[in-house]
Write a structure and sequence with these properties.
Length: 239
């Protein structure tokens, strides 16, 4: 069994109340739960939140809602603070940002991860527009020839020194990161025992702590057209 965990901070600084924003009279969170119900593997679905409102409204729509008021810097930290209430050793963290993405790839994604669960697996997609390349809310990842993540950044990476930026995308070397992680409890138990890394604090990217801990993160390619992350109020205007 895999525990699907959705960490939610309702009053986030970047986009407060995002997960309960209505899209065609339906809260964003409902779109995500509709998709998780279609996953074909054996699972439980858990929400970890600081919101009594979310707990009251969704307690009968998921297997468990964990109310956690402890301050957390990121979704992974929110999960690690509540590991004892998660039944499975296998955890799929789906961030609320991805509620409108097409998650049909998740069944293939989890099958790939099960080949080696001693690594973290996360989806990426090829960036095909300069707008996304320059958008600081679109996290970029540089990967090795063996698809292992080398670094994540909000900046445009890799940087082509001898090529004007308008031609960078022709090289097919720029990848966007999707806010989904597959990892084990064993890996997560190490996360909170490791202090925040300096790069994590600079970029405000939780996955950089894993790289600082030398825990490998491998990447899984998905189609850009399936990814519709909601990072800001402006993103909702494009729907």
């Amino acid at each position: 069994m895999i525990s699907i965990v959705i960490p939610i901070r309702l009053k986030s600084k970047r986009f407060p109340n995002k997960i309960i924003q209505l899209i065609k009279d339906k809260p964003l969170l409902d779109y995500l739960l509709d998709q998780t119900n279609k996953f074909t593997f054996k699972k439980e679905c858990i929400i970890i939140t600081d919101s009594h409102e979310i707990k009251k409204k969704y307690h009968n729509k998921v297997d468990n809602i964990i109310l956690s008021d402890k301050p957390c810097s990121c979704g992974t930290e929110r999960i690690t603070n509540n590991l004892e209430e998660i039944n499975s050793p296998y955890i799929l963290n789906i961030q609320a940002d991805e509620a409108l993405s097409n998650l049909d790839f998740i069944n293939r994604f989890t099958q790939e991860w099960k080949k080696n669960t001693q690594r973290i697996l996360t989806p990426i997609y090829q960036i095909n527009t300069l707008e996304k390349l320059r958008n600081k809310n679109v996290v970029k990842v540089v990967k090795s020839s063996k698809n292992q993540a080398l670094y994540f950044s909000r900046q445009c990476i890799p940087y082509f020194r001898d090529l004007e930026q308008t031609k960078w995308l022709q090289k097919k070397q720029h990848w966007g990161h999707v806010g989904i992680y597959a990892y084990t409890k064993d890996i997560l138990q190490k996360y909170n025992t490791h202090k925040n890394s300096s790069l994590e604090n600079i970029e405000k990217l939780e996955q950089l702590r894993f790289l600082d801990m030398t825990i490998p993160i491998h990447t899984f390619e998905v189609d850009e057209k399936d990814i519709k992350a909601v990072d800001s109020p402006e993103d909702l205007k494009t729907i």
